[in-house]
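Fold this sequence, please.
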Amino acid sequence: MAGSNPLGDTEITDPRAMRALAHPVRLAILETLHRNGPATATQLAPDVGATPSVTSWHLRHLATFGLVRDAEPGPDRRQRRWEPAGRGFRFRAPEGDETAATAARALTQEMFLRHADLPRHWITEVEPHLPPQWRNAGGLATTRLALTTDELAAVEDAIEHVLAPYVTRPARERPPGSRTVRLMRYVLPEATDDQTERPA
């Protein structure tokens, strides 16, 4: 399921694919492939917390929905290597499709749970060992905006167009001194006043 977007992400609208991905091992597989490149089930197994045979089963399940695919063979051509179908992935439920909305909610929850500890890990394990210029460049920003859904979509689109040249730049073109940076974008519409519980 290829997608046309500035970052080269796989776009998921099929609720069956969302449900397939809403699993900690499968999310770990996809994240590891995105981070480290093509790998066999045996190579992936230690990083995803499953045996090679279980990892292989999950890979085949992800392939059913076009989320991973066969990669070029490695030195041992007898071993099947896998790669992600896109640079990343994104998902949305078509409007009015409650089955897809339920699946998207389950995947969103699994992803939030998976990444919930990343900020704490970064501030305690990574940030103290960064050079000063990288410590100053990293960190947290939170902004509240009053937007319509169309305006929010335009903001997201503008952000992606800024990021796209850096996301899609080949490794050989990265300038000296560059390093991987994770940008986490939480888009969290807030409750309206009439949705917010007030004390009795």
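The first strand starts at residue 10 and ends at 12. The domain at 1-116 is CATH 1.10.10.10 (Arc Repressor Mutant, subunit A).
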